[in-house]
Amino acid sequence: MAEELTPAVSGAAAAAADPEAPEEPIKQRKNGLYPGVSDELAENMRSGWADTELRDLEPIPQAARTAARRAALSARFPGERLVVPAGNLKTRSNDTEYPFRASVEYAYLTGNQTEDGVLVMEPTADGHRATIYLLPRSDRENGEFWLDGQGELWVGRRHSLAEAEHLYGIPASDVRELAGRLREATGPVRVVRGHDAGIEAALTDKVTAERDEELRVFLSEMRLVKDDFEIGELQKAVDSTVRGFEDVVKVLDKAQATSERYIEGTFFLRARVEGNDVGYGTIAAAGPHACTLHWVRNDGPVRSGDLLLLDAGVETHTYYTADVTRTLPVSGRYSEIQRKIYDAVYEAQEAGIAAVRPGAKYRDFHDAAQRVLAEKLVAWGLVEGPVERVLELGLQRRWTLHGTGHMLGMDVHDCAAARTETYVDGVLEPGMVLTVEPGLYFQADDLTVPEEYRGIGVRIEDDILVTEDGNRNLSAALPRRSDEVEAWMAALKG
């Protein structure tokens, strides 16, 4: 990695936080190899550059959808200024940053994904006027584009404000002017908190936590029902995820020679080639690690005879993520006890998926799957029945642990800020997408179960779209039944 000439914190970012502060010269990096910039070099770098403005841009595919979302937001909060930040770069260590991912609320309403962006909706007599505030192209007159740590010669070209207007269908302005404008704003204001400290500071005397939370909740509930574009993106994410699972099966021999990280890295390659990233930290849990629900260390051995619980999802370039789990026999064949537990989870998942339909209570699929698991645990003598008693007391949770699913979308646990009455206590509608993912986990040190059960963890997870007449399994291309899994793995291994 080349050593930059300047600090990682850019002058543009500082100006965005406080545009009234006097402009400071771009500072040299401590311990940099160049002591300064000569006047001759500075003058040379100002000129001799071609015009690179892009003048034939088409709007992003979801531009009509983001406009409709902003209209719905406008109708909910008439007469109020609404401020939705994308967020800022976060430092990983010293002068390196984590890859940037815009806030879901901002990306959902604009389609833009660049750091420091802010959507502002100004109230008008008949609704709102939206403006997207962005960093413009790097300044070549003052040397920002080549001297600043976030200058374009270091991190890449940004869209000009004119280009952004064409792409997103929203008037664009310089974000470095925004904090000052917000300080002078009058009238009711709401902001989505937690993404941009500078913007929040400019509004500190104008907003309340309660009112801001109402905005966040509304934006979360807007995403409960997906439009056609979103469903298409989720299917893309799932399709890439299916290919990622196939990639993993093909290299299980290499994973056995190394560790779970080979599996993680193999899936990540597919995610980066076909999408933006993984939608969440890949769980590549082999052997007893499968009993740790969110095992993301992925540093354990992969052994023939053990199970591999792979919970992974590709995130598309528009931030929609899949979330799929399969529990695979590393050898290609389930043992008798592994098959017994796997088939019980499969039966529970079948019951859960069958309960997903419009008009059903959201909780129905969870209750259906939990009943099957409780029945199995009673039948195996692991817990005393009857089943109704087990469910009433939640005794099955020692081995099932988690809920049977969640909403899915731009977040892997989408719509998390929605009110309980519209989410967990709500009713399913066409266009909702959720996971169905029952599991059984017998910890390696659990003395309440026979020894042969210990260290076995099984989860099966699929992404389910609620349709007008029932549901559609978006991830049906991945086999689920134990014999079909074995046949699929055998075919991939050749």
Structural key phrases:
about 500 residues; alpha+beta; five-stranded mixed β-sheet; three-stranded antiparallel β-sheet; 17 strands; about 15% strand; globular; aminopeptidase activity; manganese; Xaa-Pro aminopeptidase; EC 3.4.11.9; Peptidase_M24B_aminopep-P_CS
Question: How would you describe the overall organization of this protein?
Answer:
The protein has 18 helices and 17 strands. The protein has 494 residues and is an alpha+beta fold. The strands form 6 sheets. Strands 6-5-4-1-7 form a 5-stranded mixed beta sheet. Strands 9-10-12 form a 3-stranded antiparallel beta sheet, with helices on one face. Helix 11 runs antiparallel to helix 13 and helix 14 runs antiparallel to helix 15. The longest helix is centred in the middle third of the chain and has 23 residues. It is globular. About 3% of the residues have low confidence. GO terms for molecular function: aminopeptidase activity.
